[in-house]
Amino acid sequence: MSFRIADLAHGQRLTSTLAAIQARTREAQMAIASGKAVRRYDQIADDAGLLLRARDARTLAGALLDRNQTLARRLQAMDSALDGLVGIAQRARAALVRRLDSGTGRNMPLTTELDSMLAEIAARLNTKLGEDHLFAGSRTDRPPVVLPAGSITVADPSLYYRGDEVRLSARVDEGVEITYGVTASDPAFADLIAALGQARVAHAADDRAGLEQAMAGLDAALDGIIDLRGGLGAEAARLDSIRDAHEAGIAYLDDIVSGIEDTDVPTVMTRLAQDQATLEAAYAVTGRLAALSLADYLR
């Protein structure tokens, strides 16, 4: 005698299989919705250690990259200030060339021009980024340059500088710390301020020799500021190289983390469709079996 419906053991196996497929379907739906293939470390026992190490390394690299981007902005702001000082020195030099013209130079309003330039110099050297004055050494909470009422005619930073001589440093990579920047007490800035002060006094006294001396001081200041820009450029280039390495490392670590815990959506969608088709077929068969009557058994 043969049976047309499954026995009890077969029914239990069918129920267990359906439950497993249902659980797998729920997991797939959650993976697609969240974008994460795993939610517990016990699901990735073989890769859990690698995942934790990759996450830790990613956190450190991200913190260093953020710090280095802030440092890059500081260097860019300092370079912009130095670029402005180069422009001021060049304008001052052109003004002195006109002043040394024996025909019309004596009558030009050089004092007004020089006063305006000195104010610009102070503003550039008092450049801030956020709450920090960039040319003040470690005393970043206050403007480093305060020009006196009278003319400064000697290259002496103590006559205008209110910062200190500490060059700032930053940890830019594992085991790598760089010292960067420049203070407003640098000889190039002192030369520039003194040259403009000398020109101001010489103009008022109609002192041609004094004007020529101021011109020489301007040339020295201009060369010095250009050298400072070159130094900042070298620091910025080194920092860019380190930042590029951090960005590449972060991309690599993100790939590792993603490969372990992120959902492969096309694969999961295919598996989900297969499981859903299996469930629908199983439910249809179960429904037909449940609808069988005694008459069906006797046929």
Descriptive notes:
It is built from 7 helices and 4 strands; from the N terminus they run H-H-H-E-E-E-E-H-H-H-H. Strands 1-2 form a two-stranded antiparallel ribbon. A hairpin with a 2-residue loop joins strand 1 and strand 2. Helix 2 packs antiparallel against helix 5. The chain is rod-shaped and about 110 Å long. This is Flagellin. It comes from Benzoatithermus flavus. It is found in: Bacterial flagellum. Keywords: Bacterial flagellum, Cell projection, Cilium, Flagellum.
Relevant terms:
mainly alpha; 5% strand; flagellum; bacterial flagellum; Flagellin; 299 residues; two-stranded antiparallel ribbon; 2 domains
What is shown here, in short?
Keywords: Bacterial flagellum, Cell projection, Cilium, Flagellum. The chain is mostly helical and 299 residues long.
